[in-house]
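Long-time lurker, finally posting.

We've been working with Methionyl-tRNA formyltransferase (Marinomonas aquimarina) and I want a structural starting point before designing mutants. I don't trust myself to interpret raw outputs, so I'm hoping someone here can both generate the structure tokens and explain anything notable. Sequence follows.
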Amino acid sequence: MTDTANAPLRIVFAGTPDFAAASLQAVLDHADQNHYEVIAVYTQPDRPAGRGQKLVASPVKQLALEHDIPVYQPLNFKDETDRQALADLNADIMIVAAYGLILPKAVLDTPKLGCINVHASLLPRWRGAAPIHRAVIAGDTITGITIMQMDVGLDTGDMLLKKECNIKADDTSGVLHDRLAMLGGEALIEGLEAIKAGTIHPEQQNEELTCYAEKLTKQEGEVDWTQDATTISRRIRGLLPWPGAYTHTPAGVMKIHAAKLLDTEEQDFEHGEITMVSKEGIVVAAGKGSIMVTELQFPGGKRMSVQDALNGKFKDQLQVGKLLGSQA
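Top reply, 14 upvotes:
Generated this for you. Predicted structure of Methionyl-tRNA formyltransferase:
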């Protein structure tokens, strides 16, 4: 707890992408009412982006600058100068959300109340880099936010607070991300208030229940049409918006921007065979069941509906009997 009940909680916030910005925004929105003072923000160095490869500030940095909050962007905390700069801030607590750096013990021990993390899963399930995507791909029906006391392990610290969130049958990782980002902000404020009040009861994680959410790769996006339709549907949704799912056609790689599970019954078609075409979408046979692709993109083209694609130069690739995948 802070020295006095009415003293502002001196907060250092560390995060980088939109998910983290939602948590920072929640803290700022409650700053006056709850006596929070965000004294500094840490975020990843500006990265080149877009066709011009111009340096772009992270969403967290942009939000911090809008509120005149000092921003620090160390490459890591190996340099004593960077560790001392953090110590000089005299923070009560450090909030970490999708920062992108592994924090050494010296950093974790610097704030008076240590460092807490806003993690996008119900720990101990889905530790690691891509918990939202892995939950969708695995077919989980429930996920959520865990506010965790950080230690030197990878998402191994004691759990301080959890808030659940349902995963809907048609959720993509992008849609679920946005819902969890807002929930993360809510959970963070609830957690901070409990920490201030001294009512938090840390809970150790059950190591037997852990699984690791590996970082995504572009190669994972290739659809294996020999898999059952349920598995394919989860993978397509789980990889949207990045890295995205794709399949091969004679005209090149076709990106799949939207698809839905059509059925799960056994069928007498080749894997990857287009079995039906309509303005709603193309139906593709899987190892068991079928998928309806509704939005796609061909090389050199833009994202479009199947209806628009059927009026374009690639319409011959979308006819009944055509094969998608490695055999195309």
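Before you design anything, note these points.
The radius of gyration is 23 Å.
Residues 218-318 form a domain with the Methionyl-tRNA Fmet Formyltransferase; Chain A, domain 2 fold (CATH 3.10.25.10).
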